[in-house]
């Protein structure tokens, strides 16, 4: 399935996931929706810093917040996580196709003129032996 998002949306998702704390917040929200205060207890940073991380995740649509009394409950957005996974799958397919094309091109090349890895080691050994003399 091809994912159609703007470059800005894709950048927001991967920027948000590029940070280890934000990835951990998403993982915790995936396991169970939690308040921002409960999430903040897991990190050696201020409550405000955790709020900022949650805001980045929310702008990327990786989480949503719901007010419950005085607290804000963070829920993960599985649709966006699945979209990110599909995007990575698309990138993987592109790179695998490129690698296969390169393998095909290399297979078409005649062996004449191509160095074998053992030849390189022999050259280095010979030069080292000459240096010792």
Overview of the molecule:
- This protein is mostly helical and 133 residues long.
- It is 66% helix and 11% strand.
- The protein contains 6 helices and 3 strands; from the N terminus they run ααβααββαα.
- A 3-stranded antiparallel β-sheet has the order 1-3-2.
- A hairpin with a 2-residue loop joins β2 and β3.
- α1 runs antiparallel to α4.
- The chain is elongated, with a radius of gyration of 25 Å.
Give the helices and strands, then pairings.
Blueprint: H1 7-17, H2 20-31, E1 34-35, H3 36-40, H4 47-59, E2 63-68, E3 71-76, H5 78-108, H6 117-132
Antiparallel strand pairs: 1-3, 2-3
Helix pairs in contact: 1-4, 2-4
Number of helices: 6
Helical/strand content category: mainly alpha
The residue fraction in helices comes out at 55-70%
Report low-confidence residues grouped into runs of 5 or more: none
- CA(first)-CA(last) distance: 64 Å
- Sheet-strand content, in percent, reads 5-15%
Q: Largest beta sheet, briefly?
A: 3 strands, antiparallel
Compute the number of strand runs: 3
Shape: elongated
Topology pattern, helix = H, strand = E:
HHEHHEEHH
Q: Biggest sheet, strands in spatial order?
A: 1-3-2
Mean pLDDT: 86
How large, in whole angstroms, is the Cα Rg? 25 Å
Please supply descriptive tags for the structure shown above:
133 residues, mainly alpha, 6 helices
Short description:
The protein is mainly alpha-helical and 133 residues long. It is 66% helix and 11% strand.
């Amino acid at each position: 399935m091809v994912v159609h998002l703007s470059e800005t949306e894709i950048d927001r998702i991967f920027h948000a996931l590029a940070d280890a704390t934000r990835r951990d917040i998403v993982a915790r929200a995936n396991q169970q929706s939690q308040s921002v205060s409960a999430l903040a207890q897991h990190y050696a940073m201020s409550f405000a810093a955790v709020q900022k991380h949650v805001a980045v995740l929310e702008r990327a649509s990786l989480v949503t917040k719901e007010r419950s009394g005085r607290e804000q409950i963070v829920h993960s957005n599985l649709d966006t996580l699945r979209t990110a996974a599909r995007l990575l799958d698309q990138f993987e397919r592109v790179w695998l196709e490129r690698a296969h094309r390169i393998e095909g091109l290399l297979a078409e090349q005649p062996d004449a003129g191509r160095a074998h890895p053992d030849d390189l080691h022999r050259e280095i050994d010979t030069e080292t032996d000459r240096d010792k003399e």
